């Protein structure tokens, strides 16, 4: 018996040894397959639309399906398939020998192997997915930064716009009148506009004398009728200068033509106006001021009897003219010319010269006579050529460098407009400048006042006034020129 079973024992031992060898080969094959997996493949830099998602490996089919698939393989299967089939056959045989009723372990082996392969592939995709996520976060951060920058720019622009609008509103509403005082700010209300006539608005000069009882009553009239034209005597100009002056305007027929000539020649002049002629000629007065000429008062009404009968009468007429000019232009007149000149016979007859001149000087107004004449007041007795010769010769031949030339721009003085261009051209050719009268102009006075400084000799009343066309020998002649 012992001899009968010995061959079986050797056979079983051989089978066990074969099974062990087969198992070792299977384990070595599995290790070899795992080693061949590309664990450290470089991940793509950026995912693209062509990249396919990693699909997990399909689970192994049951044993019957594996057999059918093996039967359908080509006659020369690939090496990997052959090895897989061999491993499955060996394991299946061993399982049947040991436990005939237990299912083959092929499925479990294949599932584990497939899971490992799928895991390996997914691990290879992890770096790419991680890099994609990192890039997405960077792009999102950049977008947030751009949005914040745009928002900041909008806020700054809005703040600047608000500041500009507030500044403009303050400027328009006059809120800028508030003045800083110490550590606080004053919000005093703006000064109320004085609606009284300019001659009635109290001036600083009036405030200084209003309580002086030594002054005559008319000195306290017209508290706004003051100027600062009278100052220390002005020295004579070093070079000869001509001050062109026009009396008795404005007129709609001649003043615009004279302004046109002056503008064309680039010359500024002085206009002594009669304000009763302003109605209907308002634009002319505004043009005189706008074009840089000097505006002075001749009279409101050219009526010698009313003007020179008393100091009060002269002040009344002067204040009326002053207010009209100020209301029209906002211009405060500083100079004037007596109709007929300061030595006219009507004022001398009434004996009002000293009082009128003294009061006007006290109020700061300066008066200007003349020391040359174009002879345009003789009712057209002179031709245009004669007028040009008279004007140029008297200016050039004057003993003084400061020459005040008398002309007229009232109605009927068309020859003056015609003569003016030639007068200007000839004076320029002689090197004589032409300027408007200002506070710095040395005045011409016909009569020498006892208070006149010795270094400022005045013109006498000889040729200058007698040849000026002053024919006002009676108080009834209120149409006399000059």
Descriptive account of the structure:
The protein has 482 residues and is of the alpha/beta class. The chain is 48% helix and 9% strand. The chain has helices at 2-36, 63-71, 79-98, 106-173, 204-209, 255-265, 282-290, 304-308, 311-329, 345-350, 353-362, 384-397, 414-429, 463-466, and strands spanning 179-181, 184-186, 241-249, 270-274, 294-299, 335-336, 366-367, 372-373, 402-408, 433-434. The strands form three sheets. Strands 3, 4, 5, 8, 9 and 10 form a six-stranded parallel beta sheet that branches. Strand 3 (241-249), helix 6 and strand 4 (270-274) form a beta-alpha-beta unit. Mean pLDDT is 76; it is low at 1-5, 39-67, 69-74, 104-116, 174-191 and 448-474.
Distance between the termini: 178 Å
Instruction: Encode the helix/strand succession as letters.
Output: HHHHEEHEHEHEHHEHHEEHEHEH
Quaternary structure annotation: single chain
Helix content: 40-55%
Calculate the mean pLDDT score and round it: 76
Tally of DSSP helical segments: 14
**Class by helix and strand content?**
alpha/beta
Task: Please give the radius of gyration in angstroms.
Answer: 60 Å
Low-confidence stretches: 1-5, 39-67, 69-74, 104-116, 174-191, 448-474
Number of strands: 10
* Overall form: rod-shaped
Beta fraction: 5-15%
Describe the biggest sheet? 6 strands, parallel
List the helices and strands and how they pair.
Blueprint: H1 2-36, H2 63-71, H3 79-98, H4 106-173, E1 179-181, E2 184-186, H5 204-209, E3 241-249, H6 255-265, E4 270-274, H7 282-290, E5 294-299, H8 304-308, H9 311-329, E6 335-336, H10 345-350, H11 353-362, E7 366-367, E8 372-373, H12 384-397, E9 402-408, H13 414-429, E10 433-434, H14 463-466
Parallel strand pairs: 3-4, 3-9, 3-10, 4-5, 6-7, 8-9
Antiparallel strand pairs: 1-2
